């Protein structure tokens, strides 16, 4: 009987301690004031804004990132530690004061470049420097100007011109001529080119120029 009373009293005592600790923690949480933390993040020279900086409270699992012009804004609690991180820049931490009269805090944060110095490594494609020099001397370097002159020769340009498709201007001109011929066909028959003096003059000029000569 005494043992059961002792166990019950111990259980009631521990339960009271547990609920009292929860009440104290709840009061602590309620006493912390919510603060709107905002600001602008700049580079080390304070000349350019840094966009995409990760801003978060590690213990609370909440955060944000800086915008295009380096501006950010997020709610925090008194006493929070806010971390600012970005690849290539040194990580920084801002501790929110525990006693703040205002409900807003504004920051202008500058982040420095995180430089990592590596030892110099010399990469050689040959076992010794002497073999490398001999390989360089033995190289057969082609003059780039000779390639350009071959590509710009009249024969090569003519071959490219014959294989190239019609340009936009030529396609448009052909379309306009086809449309004009279709409109003309609506109102009468086509004119006979054999009786057209302008066509004969063009034909004679083409003969004089040698356009009708057979190309071998």
UniProtKB/TrEMBL annotation:
The lineage of its organism: Bacteria, Pseudomonadati, Bacteroidota, Cytophagia, Cytophagales. It comes from Algoriphagus yeomjeoni. Pfam families: CarbopepD_reg_2 (PF13715). The keyword Protease applies. The keyword Hydrolase applies. It comes from the Bacteria. Keywords: Carboxypeptidase, Hydrolase, Protease. This is Carboxypeptidase-like protein. One of its GO terms (molecular function) is carboxypeptidase activity.
